[in-house]
Amino acid sequence: MNGIDxxxxxxxxxxxxxxxIDDGTKCTRVAGNASFSKRIQKGISQxxxxxxxxxxxxxxxxxxxxxxxxxxxxSIKRHQRTTISRDSDSGSDSESPEVDFYSLQVQxxxxxxxxxxxxxxPGLNKAQLADIISxxxxxxxxxEKEVLAYFIYxxxxxxxxxxxxKGLD
Length: 169
Description:
Blueprint: H1 6-15, E1 20-22, E2 25-26, E3 31-35, H2 38-46, E4 51-53, E5 61-63, H3 64-89, H4 106-115, H5 126-139, H6 144-156, H7 161-168
Antiparallel strand pairs: 1-2, 1-4, 3-5
Helix pairs in contact: 3-5, 4-5
Family: Belongs to the SAP30 family.
Main location: nucleus
GO molecular function: DNA binding; transcription coregulator activity; zinc ion binding
């Protein structure tokens, strides 16, 4: 209608490949809608990632794989900084247990988010979701005496998960 054939644009986008060179090898994945900027280039060099821009690339678009790899590296670096600052603030590790939410599956993180009704923006990747959940997890108050008393009671009276499972059979 406006003189531009959208099918030609779609074909061009499908033929575009990622503009990055990963550890000396040209990436051959289909480029997404994320573009390689100076800010991203600065972040890559600061994190000493083995990514560089292909000077012969036709576009500045990167694939979804490299986009998520860059975002994950950014989130992990942020996580390490907060862990280091938290360790220097508190003298002992016994006050707050260290839980690695990055090793959990995305579905588990989403289940946690839904159970505790943690509000987030839509479309978060795993690293961003793990960051938000780890911050929320640290805010949950735990009454250690009650937890220990309940645990000891359940062990003494053998009212654990095994009895609940046997009751279902």
